[in-house]
Amino acid sequence: MTTAPSTETDDSPEASQSVTPAPPRGPWAALRPLVLRLHFYAGILVAPFLLVAATTGLLYAASFQAEKIMYGHEMTVPVGDRELPISEQVAAARKAHPQGTVSAVRPSPEADATTRVLLSGVPGVDEDRTLAVFVDPYTGKVRGALEQYGSTGALPLRTWIDQFHANLHLGETGRLYSELAASWLWVIAGGGLVLWFSRRRTQRKLRGTSGRRRTLGLHGTVGVWAAAGFFFLSATGLTWSAYAGSHIDALRTSLHQATPSVSATAGGEHAGHGSASAEGGVEHGVGLDKVLAAGRAEGLSDPVEIVPPADASSAYVVKQIQRSWPTKQDAVAVEPTTGEVIDVVRFADYPVLAKLTRWGIDAHTGVLFGIVNQIALMGLALSLILLILWGYRMWWQRGRDSAFGRPIPRGAWQQVPAHVLVPLMAAIAVLGYFVPLLGIPLAVFIAADVTLGEIAYRRGKRTYAQ
């Protein structure tokens, strides 16, 4: 995460007519200027996207605790003596909010927590969200209703920040910004890491330095300590991105590592119907109380969610929804007419990549290790913000007379031996195909750089001829 000063500007005749450097001592000596130039330009041009992602990510990590404070009345209740049957709690919610259909029920997971009855198709509520009705499990009193989004049960505050972080509230088009940031974060972090460790130890000292060298020391030191976290955020962020994420899903499917889901069809295989919205009656067949009891008998401890049958030929689904450590993601399908369990999926039986994906996403979103996880994410976000600000400061300090600094000289790729350059370009092309928001901007950078270099060369040649 370093940029070294150059002696000439890119578009000066001297730069284009510079003397050919001495032969490099080895492949790394030839590659270092190329890595330096890529790190410099990627840092300058991609940093604004990373800055937005880091700032909104910082807010999102803090939103979990803010949500508990803001919606404490709806989420918590005084502990009572005996909980009402879940069917009575749902009936109380339906009496207060008769519109829409019950798409899921989340029984109180803790002694002081409310039960959430989730309603879909409620007028005024977005299609991708539900209305969560909060019911006191001891008295049946409705304590409020709020829109809920996603499997983590995000309420309005966290939902707004989540969407701001994911797509800037611009829908699918806005997702490109976050995928671009995730695609480049590991490249910039990795480039800075190798540049920092390629410096002499004496040049990495922070104590006793000032000016640009001190900024460089702060930039590099913090970057080294945070690099592993940046790699993790980049990798996990890409797993559910629009384009790279689809390639990852296809790869997992081809390796038989897709996430299994319980079948909601009697006698069916794991067909992935467990999350279907309920169209039928919530008390269809044996009813919620017996369905929940069947799930408990299979070892499904709190927190759980009950999904009513999607239609007359579907089953109830009871699934664990704890995504903090230890992860609880077991699920069962229950036959509506008999109350018998007809299908079971255990998290312990998930394929390895499915487990890693689950844990990675949950750690990325701050739920795997609770508040410790959220503090770690806030630390990484703050580190990235500081690194970007220090990077721009170094660019400024690189210049003269209060002007932004000069870029790294062109032509670094010409110093790389062909036996290194050709495989490197092939690997970059393959990577760019699977991570298009890395490959496309990189191709644009190279094309623009070559064009500007040709313009500078021609301009310098004309000046020299005169």
Automatic annotation (TrEMBL):
PANTHER family: IRON-REGULATED INNER MEMBRANE PROTEIN-RELATED (PTHR34219), PEPSY DOMAIN-CONTAINING PROTEIN (PTHR34219:SF1). Residues 1-24, 261-280 are annotated as: Disordered. The lineage of its organism: Bacteria, Bacillati, Actinomycetota, Actinomycetes, Kitasatosporales. Keywords: Membrane, Transmembrane, Transmembrane helix. It comes from the Bacteria. Pfam families: PepSY, PepSY_TM. This is PepSY domain-containing protein. It comes from Streptomyces montanus. Coiled coil: none annotated. InterPro entries: PepSY, PepSY-ass_TM. The chain crosses the membrane at residues 40-62, 176-197, 218-243, 375-395, 416-434. Residues 84-144 form the PepSY domain.
